[in-house]
Amino acid sequence: MQRLTNNAMCHLRNALRRSAGIVRALPAVVYGAWIAGCFCGCGPAGDDPESRPGTAQTRVIREDAVLKEIGAFRNETRSWYNSSRFDDLEKRAAELRASKAIFGNGRWKIQRFYDSLECSDEEQESMWQLHERIHLDWIAKKPASITARVAYADFLVSYAWHARGEDVADKVTPEGWKLFRARLAAAHAGIDEARKMPEKDPYVWTVALAIALGEGPERSEYDALVEQAHASEPMFWSYDTARAFSLLPRWYGKPGDWEHYALAASARGDGVGVETYTRIVMYLMGRYGNIFTETQASWPKTREGFEQMLKKYPESEEVVQFAAILSSFAGDREFAQPLFKRMGDTCLLNVWGSQKRFEYWRKWAAGPQGKMGP
């Protein structure tokens, strides 16, 4: 098994644990830290947009209407959690499980519900202990609740990585390893209990996959877990982004593994189809300068998914902008031009990482004459 590097550790806690979508959800800002901090944005010709100054004043928008709705949803959910309003939390989670509701960008609301409860990595130990007390109080007052048990297991996964820290394996203290393993084991036990409960929750498997990645099972065991997740809720595409992430070479895969998995996942008849492929590419693009030149990722397949998603999620500015940046990386000016025309001066920093990068690709899409097509 590979030893986890300092940088890889950070991405496990902050990204893979939240792989139910493109990214870890933050209040009204999605994908910002990953994109801004990780990808250099090199294009078809190998240029780095960050080295080029912006050519126009751009109206920088950090959220679209859908992301604003998600932010409000998260804030309300978190306020109930902070106040130990367990009845409100239980009611919301039950409604979301029953309705299988999604936001206007395709993300499941039940995922965002659990994201809302997380403890920040930067918090002091006393704050982590406070979170644990809230979770234990929730379970004590609602012993038959699957929501309380899943939320606590999810917390314990984060708490495990918090104890271990971001050092390479050789530098982790014996106490750090002890707490890491104990908390993962407790999370594992909690999820096993949740899986036996009569009520079912798709987020159970998100937590189970995060636990498995930390425990380092054999590949066949992880694959079996993914299959169980799919059988439980075939449309929950975050299982596939989680599996693809785990197949990166820095984790438990080798070059080409995640790309092959993405093709197979998108071909499943009971999922969301080619959208799965595009979701995986969107999720992993931050790991590369240009995902299409550095990996075996297929732009035609990604484009096919975007064509569906643009129709399926017409209210999502985020989907439009991801389609624009990835079509630019692929050198598909024909596809990119109408997207940039639709976007106008609106730049979502959680997609582009910087205004300069947005300006560079907007100019590129306009063509040699600087005009945005007919």
Low-confidence stretches: 1-58, 369-374
Number of individual domains: 1
Query: Going across the major beta sheet, what is the strand order?
Result: 1-2
How helical, in percent, are the residues?
55-70%
Largest sheet geometry: 2 strands, antiparallel
Radius of gyration: 21 Å
**Overall shape:** globular
Number of strands: 4
Number of helices: 19
Approximate strand percentage: under 5%
**Terminal Cα span:** 54 Å
How would you describe the overall organization of this protein?
By secondary structure, this protein is mostly helical. It has one domain (6-366). The protein has helices at 6-14, 32-38, 65-82, 86-99, 109-115, 125-141, 146-164, 174-196, 203-215, 219-232, 238-246, 257-266, 274-284, 291-294, 299-312, 317-329, 333-343, 349-352, 355-366, and strands at residues 25-26, 29-30, 59-61, 346-348. The strands form two sheets. Strands 1-2 form a two-stranded antiparallel ribbon. A two-stranded parallel sheet has the order 3-4. A hairpin with a 2-residue loop joins strand 1 (25-26) and strand 2 (29-30).
Keywords:
mainly alpha, two-stranded antiparallel ribbon, two-stranded parallel sheet, 3% strand, globular, disordered N terminus
Layout: helices, strands, pairs:
Blueprint: H1 6-14, E1 25-26, E2 29-30, H2 32-38, E3 59-61, H3 65-82, H4 86-99, H5 109-115, H6 125-141, H7 146-164, H8 174-196, H9 203-215, H10 219-232, H11 238-246, H12 257-266, H13 274-284, H14 291-294, H15 299-312, H16 317-329, H17 333-343, E4 346-348, H18 349-352, H19 355-366
